[in-house]
C-alpha cells in the first residue's frame, strides 16, 4: 500500500528542491512542452500520480530521488513524442523505467530530469502462427507468464515473478529455463525501439543480426524498447519452490552445488539458486530455490542429492509455472529495504569444491562485526551462487549470440549475486562496501584457485552479468566484443543522447 499523504510528501519534496537547487528551469520547461504534446500523460510534483510513480521502486534507496516530472506514455508514439521534444533540451537528463527493480541510483531513476515510466505500456499476447510472444515492458513477470500459460506456452523469463520485464530482457536475464533455451535476451528476436532521435524502428534479428546481438545484453543504450518479440516454448506443470536450511547444512549444500554445475549439461530441466544469507551476529542460513521442468524431480543424481538434505522450511511442490513464480517472489516483495547488488563471474574449478565455503566464510568475516550490532537487526547480506552451465552458451550461439559473449565452447561458470539490505540511510556506504570488499577479495583469489586447470588466469573469460551488477562495475568493458558494440552504439546514437543523458550501464 502506498503511504497516502501527498501534501506532506510535497512539502518535504519542495524543501528538498530548495535545498538542492531543485529541478532546473530547463527541465521544467521540457516537462511543460511534453505535457502540451501529450496532455494528461505528464505529472508534476504535488500530484498524487507523481508521488506514487516517484516511489515505484523495489529498493527504497531510489524513492529518495525526485524527477522534475514523470511521463506515463501509453504507446510507442507517446514515447517518441517525448524523446523528440527532449532532443531540443540537451541539458535535461531522462530515463526509462520498466519494473524499477534495478537497485542502482541513476539507472531507472533521474534526479531533476524526466522519468519515462513504462507501466502503462504493458501486456503480453501469443502469436501461435509464429510461435512468439509479443511482450510489452510494463508490469512484472507474474503477468507475462500467467498470460502465456493459458496458451500452454512460456518464455525464458524471471525466476521471482515480481521482477520487472524491460530491464530483465535488455540486460541478459537468467531463468530457470536457461539450461534448456539460453538467457532470456537470447530468445528475443524482435525489438520495437524509440531511438535517440525519437524515431520508432523495428529491429528484426534475422535482418539485423549484429544489432540483435548488441541488443541482447547492452541495457538501455540503443533506445527505449516498447515491445519485445520473444520465442515461445511449451510448458506444463513444473516441480519446485523454496527450501530453507540452517548453517549446519553448509557442507552438504556446497558439495551438492559443486556436483550440480557440470551435471546440468545432462539434465537441462533442472535449475537451482543457492542463496547463502548472512544475518544477525554473523549467523548463516541458506535459501534454495529449486526448479524442475516436469511434474516430478529426478530421484538420483546431484539435483536429487540436494533434495535429500534436511530443511527447516519446505514449500516445494508440483504446481503450474505461474504459481511457482508467484510464490518465489513473495518474500522479496515484502523486503521494503535499502538494497544493493554486486556481481562477479566465477570459473567452475572441477578439482576444487572448497571455494564456495571460502567465499561464504569471507563474507561472514566481512559482515560479522556490523551484523552483530543489536541496532542493525534488520540488516542482512546474501551471496547467491547461480550456476551458468556450459550448455547455456550453446543455446546462445544457436540463437545468434549475445552481448555478454557466451558461446558454444564456453566452460561451466557461476554467476555470483551479492545482495545487501538495510534500513538506515547512514549505512548506505558501509553496506555497499561489504560487497565491494568481497568481490575485491575474490578477484585476488581467482588466479590462485584457477592454478593449472585453465592455464593463465588472463585466459579465462569471465564477463560480468549486467542484471546483477553495481553501478560502478565496468560490465560492458568485461564483454569480449566491447569495441564492436561501442562502435554500433555510436552509430545508433551519434550525438550521445542515450550515452550521456540516460541511465544504466554504458559502453
Ligand atoms: C527480487 C529480484 C529478483 C531478481 N531475479 C532475477 C533473475 O532471476 N534473473 C535475472 O537475470 N535477474 C534477476 N534480477 C535482476 C533484474 O533482472 C534486474 O533488476 C532488472 O533490471 C529488472 O528489470 P526492470 O524492468 O525492473 O528494470 P528497471 O529497474 O526498470 O530498469 C533497469 C535499467 O534498464 C533500463 N530500462 C528498463 N526498461 C527499459 C526499456 N523498455 N527500454 C530501455 N531501457 C529500459 C532502465 O533505464 C535502467 O537503466 C532480480 C532482481 C530482483 C530485485
Ligand atoms: C571499461 O572497460 C573498457 C574495456 O577494457 C575500457 O576501455 C573502458 O575505459 C573502461 N571504462 C571505465 C569507465 O573504466
Ligand atoms: C534517427 O535515427 C534513426 C535510427 O537510428 C535513423 O535511421 C534516422 O536517419 C535518424 N533521423 C534523423 C532525422 O537524424
UniProtKB/TrEMBL annotation:
Pfam families: FAD_binding_4
Top-rank lineage group of the source organism: Eukaryota
Stretch forming the signal peptide: 1-21
Key word Membrane present: no
MF terms (GO), sorted A to Z: FAD binding; oxidoreductase activity
UniProtKB keywords: FAD, Flavoprotein, Oxidoreductase, Signal
Stored Gene3D superfamilies: 3.30.465.10
Annotated ranges, domain FAD-binding PCMH-type: 63-235
Classification via InterPro entries: FAD-bd_PCMH (IPR016166), FAD-bd_PCMH-like_sf (IPR036318), FAD-bd_PCMH_sub2 (IPR016169), FAD-linked_Oxidoreductase (IPR050416), Oxid_FAD_bind_N (IPR006094)
Annotated family: Belongs to the oxygen-dependent FAD-linked oxidoreductase family.
Protein name: FAD-binding PCMH-type domain-containing protein
Amino acid at each position: 500500500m502506498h503511504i497516502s499523504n501527498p501534501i506532506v510528501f510535497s512539502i518535504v519534496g519542495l524543501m528538498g528542491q530548495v535545498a538542492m537547487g531543485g529541478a532546473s528551469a530547463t527541465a521544467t520547461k521540457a516537462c511543460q512542452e511534453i505535457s502540451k504534446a501529450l496532455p494528461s500523460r505528464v505529472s508534476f510534483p504535488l500530484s498524487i500520480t507523481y508521488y506514487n510513480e516517484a516511489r515505484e521502486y523495489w529498493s527504497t534507496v531510489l524513492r529518495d530521488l525526485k524527477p522534475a516530472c514523470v511521463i506515463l506514455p501509453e504507446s510507442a508514439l507517446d514515447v517518441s513524442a517525448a524523446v523528440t521534444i527532449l532532443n531540443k533540451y540537451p541539458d535535461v537528463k531522462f530515463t526509462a523505467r520498466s519494473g524499477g527493480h534495478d537497485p542502482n541510483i541513476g539507472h531507472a531513476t533521474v534526479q531533476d530530469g524526466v522519468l519515462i515510466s513504462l507501466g502503462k505500456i504493458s501486456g503480453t499476447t501469443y502469436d501461435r502462427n509464429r510461435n512468439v510472444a509479443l511482450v510489452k515492458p510494463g508490469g512484472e513477470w507474474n503477468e507475462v507468464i500467467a498470460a502465456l500459460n493459458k496458451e500452454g506456452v512460456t518464455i525464458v523469463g524471471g525466476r521471482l515473478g515480481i521482477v520487472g520485464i524491460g530491464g530483465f530482457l535488455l540486460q541478459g536475464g537468467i531463468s530457470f529455463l536457461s539450461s534448456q533455451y539460453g538467457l532470456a535476451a537470447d530468445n528475443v528476436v524482435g525489438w520495437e525501439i524509440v531511438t535517440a532521435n525519437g524515431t520508432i524502428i523495428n529491429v528484426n534479428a534475422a535482418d539485423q543480426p549484429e544489432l540483435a546481438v548488441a541488443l541482447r545484453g547492452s541495457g538501455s543504450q540503443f533506445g527505449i524498447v516498447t515491445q519485445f518479440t520473444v520465442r515461445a516454448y511449451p510448458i506444463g506443470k513444473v516441480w519446485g519452490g523454496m527450501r530453507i536450511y540452517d548453517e549446519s547444512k553448509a557442507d552438504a549444500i556446497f558439495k551438492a552445488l559443486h556436483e550440480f554445475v557440470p551435471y546440468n549439461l545432462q539434465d537441462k530441466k533442472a535449475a537451482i539458486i543457492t542463496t547463502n544469507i548472512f544475518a544477525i551476529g554473523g549467523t548463516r542460513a541458506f535459501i534454495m530455490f529449486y526448479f524442475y521442468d516436469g511434474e516430478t524431480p529426478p530421484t538420483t543424481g546431484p539435483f536429487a542429492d540436494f533434495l535429500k538434505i534436511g530443511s527447516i522450511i519446505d514449500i516445494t511442490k508440483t504446481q503450474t509455472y505461474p504459481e511457482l513464480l508467484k510464490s518465489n517472489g513473495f518474500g522479496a516483495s515484502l523486503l521494503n529495504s535499502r538494497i544493493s547488488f554486486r556481481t562477479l563471474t566465477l570459473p567452475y574449478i572441477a578439482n576444487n569444491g572448497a571455494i564456495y565455503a571460502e567465499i561464504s566464510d569471507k563474507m561472514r568475516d566481512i559482515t560479522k562485526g556490523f551484523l552483530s550490532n543489536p541496532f542493525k537487526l534488520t540488516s542482512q547480506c546474501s551471496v547467491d551462487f547461480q550456476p551458468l552451465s556450459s550448455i547455456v552458451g550453446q543455446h546462445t550461439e544457436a540463437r545468434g549470440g549475445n552481448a555478454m559473449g557466451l558461446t558454444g565452447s564456453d566452460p561451466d561458470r557461476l554467476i555470483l549475486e551479492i545482495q545487501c539490505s538495510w534500513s538506515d540511510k547512514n549505512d548506505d556506504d558501509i553496506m555497499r562496501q561489504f560487497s565491494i570488499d568481497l568481490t575485491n577479495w575474490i578477484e585476488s583469489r581467482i588466479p590462485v584457485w584457477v592454478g593449472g586447470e585453465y592455464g593463465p588466469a588472463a585466459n579465462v573469460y569471465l564477463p560480468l552479468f549486467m542484471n546483477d551488477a553495481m553501478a560502478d562495475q565496468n560490465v560492458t568493458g568485461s564483454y569480449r566484443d566491447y569495441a564492436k558494440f561501442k562502435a554500433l552504439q555510436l552509430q545508433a546514437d551519434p550525438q550521445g543522447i542515450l550515452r550521456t543523458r540516460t541511465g544504466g550501464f554504458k559502453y
